Amino acid sequence: MPRFSANISTLFTDVDLPERFARAAQAGFRGVEIQFPYACDKAMLAERARGAGVEVVLINLPAGDLSTGERGIACLPSRASEFRDAVGLGIEYARALGVTRVNCLAGIAPPKASDALLRETFISNIRYAAGELGRRGIQLLIEPINTRTLPRFWLHNFGQAIALIAEASVSDTLPNIAIQYDLFHMQIMEGDLSRTMAENLPHIGHIQFADVPDRHEPGTGELNFAYLFDAIDRIGYTGWVGAEYTPSLLRTEDTLGWFRPYLLREQQQQQQQQ
Hints:
Radius of gyration: 18 Å
CATH superfamily: Divalent-metal-dependent TIM barrel enzymes
Low-confidence stretches: none
Number of domains: 1
Order of helices and strands: EHEHEHEHEHEHHEHEH
Shape: globular
Structural class: alpha/beta
Distance between the termini: 19 Å
Strand order of the largest sheet: 1-2-3-4-5-6-7-8
Helix content: 25-40%
Mean pLDDT: 95
Largest sheet: 8 strands, parallel, barrel
């Protein structure tokens, strides 16, 4: 059965971020993700996570000025120094929160930018980030994002991500980099989700999901999540599967009908083992 984590940047948003750890735990989640925890004190967040009894499984590196529409700086040649500072801050928060996977957003390609230069910049930056994170036992993830939601997002398909990882490698083995595979983004860009995951499992470090087209909870759109979650089990994926959707209702708890059968199954398994 998949291990589900709650992205508390998009879920339980009727309360402030520090209060969401307890809400996620009360709903049955054992893991949580945070997109950008940097507005809060890292020690306080770590204490809240411990108090709620949840594991923080993922954060993103700082991604530029989100208020102006930036969604990553890793491909931007003029921001290389800022990117290195972002890696340092990301490491501080990851270590404080006990996080072992950190996601890097490539960013939006500037108009008329040289794709070759953006590629060279991105590869240089992820090599640096993978090295710095790897020395602390943290894996770097890169995430393809659909260009309907974010026009001109530079990293936008799975094959491109695999090629970038291969090029960033300095040996015959993969570096400390894997792909964050978001079912929402990849359904929009490519489809063929279950086969892509099965054929490329070694490249996938984390999975996220939301339904298509409106990025709400499972059951509100076109994806067959019962099939996809079973497929994730069948291929032998053992990592976390992150719920990163925008609830269609005010209270996240009212959108967790998709989750309750899995939670019940987990509780039954625990009872059988006692």
